Amino acid sequence: MKKKIAIIIGLLVLMFLVFMAGWLLKEKFSKQSYVSSPLRLTDFKFARPLLVCDTNPNKANPELQSLEVKLKNLIDKEKKDKKVSTASVYMQDFKTDGRIDINKDEKFDSASMGKVSIALAFFRLAESDYSILSQRIKYNSGRDENFSQEIKPNDYAKIGETYTIQELIEKMLKYSDNNSTYMLLSFLEPGKLQELYQDLQVPGQMDPQKPGGYDYMTTRDVSYFFRVLYNSTYLMNDLSEKILEILTETDYKNGLVAGVPEGIVVAHKFGLTSLESNGNIVERELHDCGIIYHPDNPYLLCVMTKSSSTVPDIESAIKDISSMVYQYANKKQ
């Protein structure tokens, strides 16, 4: 009788061990499974060109999970210190395709971030007629569109002067010049910019009289501008390369760039807008998004914020986030 009981207990233990082994294997492989979410162009009859493909390995990478927790804690600290009231972070590791998307549903005024899309629209036209970049236009506006900017451009289009389209694109991206933006939007054929937003499936209604006046966007929305450039899936290779080269020459250094070691190349665009009441700024939105060319582990980082604090305080928060992500990329070596 005792022998039978021992055999039954042994069988139950064996069944339990087999069950646990199966469960652990299921967890292991399910965490490595991918769910794809492709973004394709739809304006062709037969082809469906692939722009980007979001894949989610169910966050199987423990290092990425750890980084996400650290970033959330850092954002909570920055909020407690009143540097920001809201912050969203989108990060993509280009080597592993791992993603972090913190506060992903928060929408922001894209401000000058949308200037990257204007460059994309013009270079898209240049694919069929490269001479468009050499066309010259005169700045005939009666006012300086940069008059209200807190961070003034170091170089800008001047009233009465004539510039090529490419020169204006460079001023717009490198220095965030609103005068150049205004001229480019005035020259661009109506609907061309909206076509781009439809292709990327992001909000993008544009008011030509308000440079940067886009619908509100998430960090993931903005990430598409940089991802199609890095992957060279929307423009020809040499044209994607040219825009990214211009973005590496952006003269704003107080956000993402401040958080990485000197000499690390960053192709990025910043944007700043503010809400005023009775002549006083009551809220700012400061963003910085781009590609950090870590020598071994390049990645995309987009930080968008809302704050009632000063510009230097917000810049400090973005710098801290950038520094934390770079440390993660460095440890992967």
Using brief descriptors, characterize the structure shown.
333 residues; alpha+beta; Beta-lactamase; 11 strands; 41% helix; globular
Overview of this structure, please?
The protein is an alpha+beta fold. The chain has one domain (55-331): 3-Layer(aba) Sandwich (Beta-lactamase), CATH 3.40.710.10. Helix content is 41%, strand content 20%. The termini are far apart.
Secondary structure topology:
Elements: H1 2-31, E1 35-40, E2 50-56, H2 62-80, E3 86-93, E4 99-102, E5 108-109, H3 115-126, E6 136-138, E7 162-164, H4 165-175, H5 178-187, H6 192-200, E8 216-217, H7 219-230, H8 237-247, E9 266-277, E10 280-292, E11 299-306, H9 311-331
Antiparallel strand pairs: 1-2, 3-4, 3-11, 5-8, 6-7, 9-10, 10-11
Helix pairs in contact: 2-9, 3-4, 3-6, 4-5, 7-8
Under CATH, the homologous superfamily reads DD-peptidase/beta-lactamase superfamily
At CATH's second level, what is the architecture? Answer: 3-Layer(aba) Sandwich
| End-to-end Cα distance | 61 Å
> Main sheet, how many strands, which sense, barrel?
5 strands, antiparallel
Please provide the ordered H/E string of secondary-structure elements.
HEEHEEEHEEHHHEHHEEEH
Spatial order of the strands forming the largest sheet? 4-3-11-10-9
Q: Please state the structural category.
A: alpha+beta
- Helical residue percent? 40-55%
Arithmetic mean pLDDT = 85
Q: Brief overview, please?
A:
With 333 residues, this protein is an alpha+beta fold. It is 41% helix and 20% strand. Residues 23-34 have low confidence and may be disordered.
